[in-house]
Specification:
393 residues; flat; 7-stranded mixed β-sheet; single chain; 37% helix; alpha+beta
């Protein structure tokens, strides 16, 4: 562990200790009816500092993962095709023998390594790609069969007849899918003079735009020309009846417009124990600010900062993944999901990124119209629970 991240972790834990002390004073002042504005402001300031320190720790973890994904400077496995792709980006040259996947409109399927680079960067930027199951398909659509049960059985003696038993049934679910695109531009002069690393620049432009589109779609996409978001499958959501196994179960927060520690505990224990081994919380930063102040019945804070580089903060002992596209805490919203995301949600990548080089539309700029097909949907509602901000029934 380098000195900077070690210092950040130590500062985070030191700040959290001060945060707990100040928050305890705030609670005590409120209970006694004393003025609490000053201590509340102090608590909020410490909360902001703690968020910044945790963000720095998380960013270091991302950089560590990025280095591990980098492959240690290995040469491309498809070096000849990579060279051809660079020529296509710079001048539009295409060698027919190497034009793998090109279509009638001049599309160019990107090299394996370049395609993988974009995917790896998307994994680092998208919390859903980090924690959910991701598969690649080669077809335009994707559907999955689900065993609905119903197969019969029975006990028999050695010579007893074996009558036919009932047969199980199946149901299918089609996963929403669409095309995501980016259209960065560069002048032909820059491309001619090779002032930039073409592949790095283009990959950076593309993965930034793709990640901006993917995040909201994986969370709440309506499935029309895009993935179907996990929140739409929650009880009461637009797709609550779409999955053969039913909707994602809901647990109330315990307050009409806020989150309680009892609500967090209820959420954890409502999830079957078979799915708690890899369970985690997802919420946005505003929600984290609120749950950081929650205590259990013994006065212990449920939230704990990272103690080791590469490890996330925890809530009631379970990892917390920040997902900016989750709703804020408000009456009847669902700001928290808890469960095993790898078993619950499936992301589908259509193999291959396609680039269309357009030097005509916006002269003197060359446009690089880049597309990739992406889908997603609920794999299984059983390993997932949602918290709804509502008083307990």
């Amino acid at each position: 562990m380098d000195a900077a991240i070690k210092e950040a972790i130590e500062n985070a834990n030191r700040t959290f200790a001060q945060f707990k002390e100040a928050n305890d004073k705030r609670i005590d002042a409120l209970e006694k009816g004393l003025p609490s504005a000053d201590v509340t402001a102090k608590v909020e300031k410490m909360g902001d500092d703690l968020s910044a320190l945790q963000a720095a720790i998380d960013e270091h973890s991302i950089k560590m993962a990025s280095i591990q994904m980098g492959g240690g400077g290995l040469q491309p496995r498809d070096a000849e095709y990579t060279d051809a792709f660079k020529a296509h980006v710079k001048k539009g040259d295409v060698q027919a023998a190497l034009n793998k996947g090109a279509d009638d409109q001049g599309g160019y399927l990107t090299p394996i390594e370049w395609d993988r680079t974009i995917t790896n960067k998307l994994v680092l930027k998208s919390p859903m790609r980090q924690i959910c199951q991701v598969i690649s398909v080669s077809k335009a659509g994707f559907s999955k069969l689900f065993n609905m049960g119903g197969t019969g059985s029975g006990w028999v003696g050695e010579t007893d007849p074996r009558p036919q038993t009932s047969t199980g049934t199946f149901a299918s679910l089609t996963f929403g899918q669409g095309e995501i695109y980016a259209n960065p531009a560069a002048t032909q002069g820059i491309l001619d003079d090779a002032e930039i690393d073409l592949e790095t620049w283009l990959a950076g432009e593309v993965d930034t735009q793709f990640s901006k589109q993917e995040g909201p779609a994986f969370a709440a996409g309506d499935g029309v020309k895009k993935p179907t978001g996990i929140l739409t499958y929650v009880t009461g959501g637009a797709n609550a009846t779409a999955h053969p196994f039913g909707a994602i179960g809901v647990v109330n927060s315990g307050a009409a417009a806020s989150i309680t520690s009892d609500g967090i505990i209820d959420l954890i224990y409502d999830l079957p124990s078979a799915f708690t081994g890899n369970a985690r919380f997802t919420m946005n930063r505003n929600t984290q600010r609120l749950v950081r102040k929650l205590k259990d019945g013994q006065g212990n804070y449920l939230w704990q900062p990272s103690f080791v580089a590469g490890q996330p903060a925890t809530l009631a002992g379970y990892p917390v993944t920040e997902m900016p596209d989750m709703p804020d805490v408000a009456a009847n919203s669902t700001p928290i999901l808890f469960g095993d995301f790898h078993q619950a949600y499936l992301i589908i990548d259509r193999i291959g990124v396609r680039v269309l080089r357009d030097p005509y539309t916006a002269k003197p700029y060359v446009l690089f119209y880049t597309t990739k097909r992406v889908g997603g949907g609920l794999l299984n509602p059983e390993p997932m629970r949602a918290m709804k901000v509502a008083a307990s029934a």
